Amino acid sequence: MKISFHGAARTVTGSKHIIHLKNGKKFLLDCGMFQGMGKETVDLNKDWGFEPSEITQVILSHAHIDHIGLLPKLVKDGFTGKIWCTPPTADLAKVLLLDSAHIQEADVKYGNRAREKDGRELLEPLYTEEDAQQVFPLFETLDYMEKRQIDDNVELLYTDCGHILGSAAVNLRIKEGAEETRITFSGDVGRYRDVILRSPDNFPQADVIILESTYGNSLHDLNTMAADQLLKEITSTCVEQKGKLVIPAFSLGRTQELLYLLNRLELENRLPDLNYYVDSPMSVQMTEIIKRHPECFNKRVRKLLEKDEDVFGFKGLHFIKDVEDSMKLNESKSPCVIISASGMAEAGRVKHHIKHVIDDAKNTILLVGYCEPNSLGGRLKDGARQVSIFGEQHEVRA
After folding, report:
1. What 8-state DSSP symbol labels residue 197?
2. Alpha-helical runs (H) found in the chain
3. CB-based contact 173:180 (threshold 8 Å)
4. Do 173 and 105 reside in the same domain of the chain?
5. How far, in Å, CA of 250 to CA of 275, rounded?
6. With the C-alpha atoms ordered 364, 370, 69, 159, is the resulting torsion angle positive or negative?
7. What is the mean pLDDT of each run of 10 residues along the chain (398 residues)?
8. Helix/strand/coil for 69
9. Is the domain of 133 the same as that of 10?
10. Domain co-membership, 295 together with 153
């Protein structure tokens, strides 16, 4: 047996690792997309470094695009085997892969306008929404802590690793003749004491561990976003100054944490009587999926479910899908809280909301997650006095 690495090695994205058995079978751990700008990233996503049709089965750790984003291309290029994952990962992947395909097609369509004018060769998308649809029948789901013989020589066990909903460490027991090898692939490891999710489980004993090391040289603070901090911002901005509080938040994870904290404030009779908007179609879909999987919640959230059947809902909450309704929010002068993607404020509807509130000191833009330094959120976090939004310069007064 040998292991080869085809991504997420000396780089963060593009997670793809192959376990080669002596009998010729090949098991692919994750099938992630390389993410970034430029021709180098495009070329990395086009060239596999292996033959997709020779892969026996795929085993996924979780649903982030840098771990599943090339599945449609894998199938398009000849893979026909099973794709193993947890039930929540399958649910998330179906939404995220279609969204990724939509982005591929839209980007190519935009780029081809200039190419067509110049008489240059037109680009093809990495894959299409139709290609993404071909992936879904191949999904085979396996619950945490349920052992499954997925091949004559291979047993699979998923353990919770607390990174996102449905994320798992892949634990394999591989027999080759009289020799048995236990391999654990960590996927991405979450933090302890998450607001919603369970803490990572301990790995079972292994002979080989393939471990992510993104933050291997640093210690994290506990992931505790305080409800009191959130309440302070709502009260100061919306109640006292009659302004708008705009919160850029990732569709999966941070948005649901915010909703959970707001729900807690309502249960404690401390939530101000305002309108609260989640303005992101993807965030709405992610929230609906998370609600279907309470088995992934930590003890505190599961206990709350005993007296509150919707821990992400509360009075005054509105989910917005239509663009027209989103635009009306910008026209409204009423104080409110707007939670919208993307988390780094570099794209999505939140960028429009920021544009409409940034020049008024009564408004607040609350950054609650990591932002790349060059993103709009990163520049605001660093205290920029002036920022460019959609090509226009804006004074930062909010």
Report:
1. B
2. 39-46, 65-68, 71-76, 87-118, 129-133, 227-234, 254-267, 281-291, 299-305, 323-331, 349-357, 376-381
3. yes
4. yes
5. 20
6. negative
7. 89 91 97 81 89 98 95 98 98 96 88 86 92 98 98 97 96 96 93 91 95 74 72 98 97 95 96 97 96 96 94 97 94 96 90 96 93 88 93 95
8. coil
9. yes
10. no
Given 210, 239, 267, the domain boundary residue is: 210
**CATH code for position 60:** 3.60.15.10
394 phi and psi angles, rounded to 5 deg:
-130, 135
Same domain for 243 and 270? yes
User: Residue 329 has what pLDDT?
Assistant: 94
Q: Are residues 200 and 242 part of one domain?
A: no
Which two three-digit tokens encode residue 19? 């376990």
- Mark whether 192 and 240 lie in a shared domain: no
Q: Are residues 231 and 203 in the same domain?
A: no
Q: How many CB atoms lie within 10 A of CB 237?
A: 24
Residue count of the chain, please give it: 398
Taking alpha carbons only, the member of 195, 202, 196 closest to residue 222 is 195
Which residues does residue 172 pair with via DSSP β-bridges, in sequence order?
156, 183
Cα–Cα distance between 246 and 253 in angstroms, integer?
A: 17
Q: Half-sphere exposure (CA, 13 Å, Cβ side) for 344?
A: 11
pLDDT at 225: 57
Residue 269's domain comprises 227-395
Residue where a domain terminates, one of 154, 180, 210: 210
Amino acid at 112: N
Whether the ω angle into residue 342 lies within 30 degrees of 0, i.e. cis, is yes
Structural domain count of the chain = 2
Q: Whose CA is closest to 29, among 62, 1, 54?
A: 62
Which tokens hold the place of 93? 């992947």
Which candidate, 235, 255, 262, 242, places its Cα nearest to that of 332? 242
Residues 247 and 174 in one domain: no
Contact 263, 323 (CB under 8 A): no
Q: Are 351 and 261 spatial neighbours (Cβ–Cβ below 8 Å)?
A: no
